Each structure stands twice: as C-alpha cells, then as structure tokens.
Structure to design on (802 residues):
C-alpha cells in the first residue's frame, strides 16, 4: 500500500514534463485566464455555461501564403482596388516575415469618397457561456499617407455577432500628424509582462461579447478617406484567443497558471527535499551516535549534551529563523532541515552501540588488534544498518512536512513551485481559500506521500527487526 | 540525591539552555548577510552622515561585537528585546499581547486534545481490536500525517466561507477596534473571543488528538494485562472505575513526557495555525517579521518560544519526578 503510493508519486515526479505541457511558474505566455474552474466541472449540473480555451485563428502570424485562405475580404468599392495579397518578406517585429497587405490605388476604382475594406474571419463559438477573458492582437503599418494634411487611413479591430451587433475593440488612425510608416500595436498600460494586446478586461463592454453559442466574425476594418490616392496597409499577427472559464484538470490560480502542473512538479521537490534532507540527518545522526556510543566518556558526555540542547530547541521557529537568514533557496532548505533532524536518531544509535560494544564479537575484534575505526566500521556499523534504513524511511515524511511548513510560511525558493508554496499563495491571494480545487490537492499529496513513507518505515521495521513482531 | 537536588539540577540545566539559546540566536543573526536596516537607516534618506550614524547608533549597529553581545543578552534577559527594524518601536510592547494570544491558543488546544485523546485511547484499548479501536487508530495515523495549515484552510473554507458559521480570523470582531465600539459587557466579549478562537483550536486539536490517543492506547494495553486489574474486576468494580482510576493512573506516565515533548510541537502548530486564521499571536508575527526582514523581532520571537519550550520541559521533568516515586534522581 505505502509502496504503491510511493511508486505512483515517484513516477509522477520523474515524468512531470511529459504529463503536462506547461511550465509551473512561467509567466511569459498566458495559457489560461485567472481563477478558472477545472474542466470536468462542465459535466456537473448547473455548470453548462463554462467555456474552455478557444483559438479560432490557425496561423495568426501569416507564416505561409495559405494563411490568407481562412480570411474573407470584402469591400464597398466596385473596382479592382483595394486588393489584398500575401507578402512573404515583410513582417511584424515579433513574428518574423510574412504578413497581409491591403493596397489601395484610387485610379483603379470607380467609387469616390471613403472606401472601406474588411478582412474578417467567421468562426463558430461552441460554448454556451462567455469566456473569462479574451486577448486580441494586431500589428499594423501603413505606408503612403504620411504627406497628407490629416489622417488618411483608419484601422479598426472588431467583433461582429452574426445577428448584427458589432463591437469595436481598438482603432488607430494613420497619416498626417498621426504616426505611420512604423508597426503599430495596441498596448495596455501597466501590463508589461505580456506582449501588447487588446484585453477584454480593458475594452469597453468586453464582458458582454461571446455571451452565447453561435457564429462570430473577427477582423479588421480599414477605411481609406477621400484624400487618399495611394496607400498600403500591412497587417500581421491578427489574432484573438478566448480564454475559457474552465481549464485543465484543476483549473488555474489567480494569475492563470495551471494548478495541475504545479501539483505534478511539486512532487519532484518533495522527493528531492525529503530524500536529501533525510539522508543528511540520518548520516549526521549515525556518525554522532556511533562515535558517542563507542568512544564513551568525555566524547559521549559532550555529544549527548549537545544533542539534548538541540532536542529542546523548538524546531520550526529555528528552521524559519535559519532559512530567513541564509536565504530561501531549496538547498538551504535541504541543509537546514537535514541539520535539525538528527537528534533522536543519534540517541537511538548510541544506545544500540552501547549494547553492541559489550558483545563477544566486538571483544574478539579488539583482541585480534582491530583499531577503533576498524571495529566501528566493520563490526558495529553493519549491526545498526537496520536502524538506518527504518529511520531513513521515517525521516522523509518529517523532512517533506518541514519543507511544506517553511514554504507555507513564505520562505520558499522563488524559482520553484512546491506544495507548501501553492497553499501559501492560495492563502494570501484574494478569494484563494475559496477555491477548493486549489487548496485540497496539495494537502492531500503531502499527506499521502508522508503516510506512504511512514507505512514503508513500519514495514521495513517489521522485516528487518523480526524481534519486534511478537510485540505488535 | 533527593527530590530537591533533582530540582536544583534541572533548574541549573534549564538556565544553561537559556544561555545557549541566547548565544545561538546571537550567532545566527551575526552571520546574516546584507544590510537589513535599509528601511529605517537607508543612507539615501538622511541629509547628513551624522543623522545616518545616529540612526545606526540607535539600533546599536556601530558597537563592537562584545558590546553588542552584552547589550543583546541584557535585552533578552530583561525581556526588552530592543527596537523593531520595521516599525522602529519597542518589541516588548507588542510581545505581551502576542504571547498571551499564542499561549491561550496553544494551552487550550493542549488541554482539550489531551482530554479527548485520553478518553479515545482508553476506550480503544479497552475494546481492543474492535470497530472503535481500528477507526481511532486509523484516524490517529492519518491526522498525524496531515499538515496543520492545510486542515486549518479546509476548516476555513467549509465553516467560514461556505457555511458562514465562524469568523475567518482575528481574536475579536475587527469593528471593535473603532472608537466607542468595544463591548461594555464582559460576558459578550468573552463569548465573541471564544467564537473567534473556535476554528484555530479545532484545527490544532484535530492534529494533536491522534498522538495522545495512540500513546494512551499503547500504555493502557501494557497495563490492562496486569494482575491487579484482574483483582479489581473480581472485586466487582465498575468498568469505568477500573479503566480510569486503576489502569489509567499507571498508564499516564509516558503521557507526561509526551505532553512536554508535544508542547514544542503545539507551539509550532500554533504558529502555522495563526497565519491561516490571521490570529495575532507570535506565529503571525513571525510571518510579518519574515516578510519585512525584521531580524530583532524574529530574534525575540524565537527566544520567547524557546523559553516557553524550556519551561515546559522543566515542568514536565518536575511533574514526572513527583508523580513517579520510582524515578531515580540521577
């Protein structure tokens, strides 16, 4: 039983990168909206309106000529102009070469006055409820209008419901006093983490859009005023991503990171910290116990007083103080947890050694001229190894728990996501505690992994120390 | 050596420990890197170097190390603790209320969980192998492996955010702090305070019951097969009297040691529980002190907690020496 849980977590820890495609901490690219529900909530009654991530546009950065095929081009002009075509050698600064060009030449068209051109994509939005958030993206560059007395081209990004309701998300005027000739993109003040975007949180009436299932048109409207004789509008990275209200196995945290991913990667840290710290403390305890027990007298007295002192110190506060001073990195956690967990084991080894050193085989070893080191390493050490294995298994949960406590209290390594840190963040973020799919799994994992090590410890104890069997 | 000698020896040993803790505490914070006083003594914020040095002197940062140590030991022993790097005020002002809150929390948890744990343990041992026994053992093993703060968060989620039965934090309703809102009726105050104490106490009790129940059960099982209990049964004493008066009295010795050992654990648990419930005790203080890199406060808190644990250990030794006449005062 214990072994099964342990093997399960070990596999999870090792295979985490293959089990989940995301990075537990990455902020560079948004993968989902904040505080989304787990996807399987959709199948619960009353949650039919949950939506998932939806990305209608396949090749937003126009990397190949085929990208243009998913778009529809319409215009109110009756001539050959404006016309749309694909350009392979020009592109926005972020996505490399490849973009769309809408060129206008007044001599080729019969219409007078302002001319409109529309480049849209129609898609079917399959969810009954609105997305949590959507982000649109566009890069625009207009050439040929800088000499006009005032603006000559206006580019608007819009969403149109098929029933007719149209929302304008963003617009820019170019030519004259307005900037042209360079790539222009919508920017949101204050959110420098993400690339410049059209954000439903900041757009007027952003929450009303995509409120039901149906067909929607997303695209740009380009208006050439009557003053314009000749102009070219390059458009690139024309994209919209709808971030649903449900995502992944366990939803997302307050800044849109996948909780399931964090959980998987947390298993790794628990194993690393648990095993290394337990190994460290058992090694220290073993050596101190061996020498204290075998050498006896003044060494024994000194070492045992030292041990007593450490036993009395309150462990968690000391741990916190030490890590706060040393700096919260994972190696400091391992070292401090390891250095604070050896006392009980040292005493156990010592008492075992005290009885072992009176045994005849030790005496025989001495009589044959064995040195102290030789006797300790060859005769006594093998006899306490049983204790070592059992204590090793029993110290791992202690170390895992200590790590969780320390991380929970905020002394986590900022580059690593652990279960304790997940709970820390859930506690300090607004409404975090109310999201049970965020706070329940890490705690369960800590409990399960600790219990499995304890059960293995018991099992080892019974196998290695057959004398105990009668007592139980 | 008699009882008196034993007590004196324990007192001397405890005092030695206190000094060791003080020194260790000093060494740890001597080794810390960087300038923690950037907030209160940032050179850029002072017009003249004299002002800057005045500020440093106020915090005793310009003294040579032996003077620092002497001042520091004096601070700790007089329970003054110096000035906070964060607020600049005396730490001792805040210490008393914080310490009181933490002690109220941990001692009430300790008492409640000992009582419940003993009752569960005794009954489980009595009905050994029965349904109650296996359920309580399973419960104890599972709760032992649960992180305290997680249990607290679950209780918070269920009873505070979903059912709205209990407040989510603090020791009294926050609006009391406004002028003129403090309740005049003492009973009302007590009632509200208990109401706020309920969830943190429950959290810790859930975690603590298990170990007490297991220890009571184990030592009861050893005692229950003794001959004198057969005699008691033969005399026709009631089951309850046999269990609690005859058997438990002798089985309680290991429990006393466990209580002393667990007190440190309870304090640690209280620290973590406090942060979950924004309960203004030492634990919440550690949390904020860590956040604001307030080393003197951390030093003081650590010292006080260590002091509490040392005192608890001393009391346990004392009680152990008095309760068990067989003990040899070595």
């Amino acid at each position: 039983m214990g072994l099964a849980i342990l093997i399960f977590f070990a596999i999870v820890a090792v295979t985490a990168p293959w089990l989940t495609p995301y990075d537990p901490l990455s902020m560079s690219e948004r993968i989902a909206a904040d505080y989304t529900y787990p996807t399987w909530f959709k199948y619960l009654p009353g949650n039919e309106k949950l939506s998932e991530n939806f990305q209608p546009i396949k090749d937003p950065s126009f990397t190949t000529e085929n990208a243009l095929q998913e778009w529809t081009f319409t215009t109110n002009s009756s001539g050959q102009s404006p016309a749309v075509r694909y350009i392979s050698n020009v592109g926005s600064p972020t996505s490399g070469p490849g973009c769309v060009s809408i060129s206008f030449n007044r001599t080729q068209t019969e219409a007078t006055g302002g001319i409109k051109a529309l480049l849209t994509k129609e898609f079917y939005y399959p969810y009954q409820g609105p997305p949590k958030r959507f982000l649109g993206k566009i890069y625009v560059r207009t050439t040929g209008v800088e000499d006009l007395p005032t603006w000559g081209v206006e580019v608007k990004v819009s969403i149109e419901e098929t029933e007719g309701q149209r929302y304008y998300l963003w617009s820019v005027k170019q030519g004259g006093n307005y900037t042209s000739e360079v790539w222009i993109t919508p920017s949101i003040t204050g959110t420098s983490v993400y690339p410049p975007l059209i954000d439903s949180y900041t757009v007027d009436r952003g929450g009303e859009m995509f409120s039901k299932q149906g067909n929607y048109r997303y695209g740009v409207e380009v208006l050439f005023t009557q003053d314009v004789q000749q102009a070219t509008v390059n458009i690139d990275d024309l994209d919209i991503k709808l971030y649903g209200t449900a995502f992944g196995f366990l939803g997302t945290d307050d800044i849109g990171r996948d909780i399931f991913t964090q959980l998987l990667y947390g298993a790794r840290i628990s194993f690393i910290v648990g095993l290394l710290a337990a190994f460290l403390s058992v090694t220290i305890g073993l050596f101190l116990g061996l020498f204290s027990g075998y050498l006896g007298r003044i060494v024994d007295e000194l070492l045992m007083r030292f041990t007593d002192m450490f036993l009395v110190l309150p462990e968690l506060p000391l741990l916190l103080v030490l890590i706060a001073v040393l700096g919260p990195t994972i190696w400091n956690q391992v070292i401090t947890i390891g250095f604070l967990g050896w006392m009980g084991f040292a005493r156990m080894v010592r008492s075992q050694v005290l009885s072992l050193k009176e045994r005849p085989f030790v005496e025989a070893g001495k009589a044959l001229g064995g040195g102290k080191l030789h006797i300790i390493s060859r005769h006594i050490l093998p006899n306490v190894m049983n204790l070592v294995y059992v204590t090793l298994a029993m110290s791992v949960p202690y170390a895992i728990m200590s790590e969780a406590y320390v991380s929970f209290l905020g002394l986590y390594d900022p580059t690593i996501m652990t279960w304790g840190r997940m709970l820390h963040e859930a506690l300090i973020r607004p409404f975090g505690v109310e999201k049970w799919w965020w706070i329940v799994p890490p705690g369960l994992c800590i409990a399960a992994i600790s219990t499995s090590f304890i059960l293995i410890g018991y099992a080892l104890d019974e196998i290695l120390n057959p004398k105990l069997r009668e007592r139980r | 050596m008699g009882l008196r000698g034993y007590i004196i020896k324990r007192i001397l040993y405890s005092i030695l420990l206190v000094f060791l803790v003080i020194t260790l505490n000093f060494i740890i914070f001597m080794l810390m890197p960087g300038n923690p006083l950037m907030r209160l003594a940032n050179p850029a914020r002072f017009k003249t170097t004299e002002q800057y040095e005045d500020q440093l002197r106020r915090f005793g940062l310009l003294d040579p190390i032996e003077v620092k140590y002497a001042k520091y030991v004096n601070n700790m022993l007089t329970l003054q603790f110096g000035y906070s790097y964060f607020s600049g005020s005396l730490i001792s002002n805040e210490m008393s209320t914080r310490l009181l809150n933490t002690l109220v929390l941990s001692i009430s948890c300790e008492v409640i969980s000992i009582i419940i744990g003993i009752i569960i343990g005794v009954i489980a041992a009595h009905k050994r192998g029965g349904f109650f026994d296996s359920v309580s053992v399973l419960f104890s093993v599972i709760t032992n492996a649960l992180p305290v703060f997680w249990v607290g968060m679950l209780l918070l989620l269920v009873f505070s955010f979903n059912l709205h039965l209990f407040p989510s934090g603090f020791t009294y309703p926050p609006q009391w702090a406004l002028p003129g809102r403090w309740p005049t009726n003492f009973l009302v105050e007590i009632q509200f305070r208990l109401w706020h104490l309920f969830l943190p106490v429950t959290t810790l009790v859930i975690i603590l019951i298990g170990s007490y129940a297991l220890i009571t059960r184990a030592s009861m099982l050893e005692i229950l097969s003794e001959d004198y209990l057969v005699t008691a049964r033969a005399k026709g004493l009631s089951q309850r009297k046999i269990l609690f008066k005859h058997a438990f009295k002798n089985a309680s010795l290991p429990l006393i040691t466990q209580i002393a050992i667990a007190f440190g654990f309870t304090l640690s648990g209280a620290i973590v529980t406090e942060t979950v419930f924004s309960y203004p005790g030492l634990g919440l203080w550690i949390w904020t002190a860590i956040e604001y890199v307030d080393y003197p406060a951390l030093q003081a808190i650590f010292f006080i907690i260590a002091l509490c644990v040392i005192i608890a250990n001393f009391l346990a030794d004392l009680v152990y020496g008095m309760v068990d006449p067989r003990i040899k005062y070595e």
Q: What stands out?
A: Chain A is about 40% helix and 20% strand. The longest strand of chain A covers residues 230-243. Residues 189-193, 468-472 of chain A have pLDDT under 50 and may be disordered.
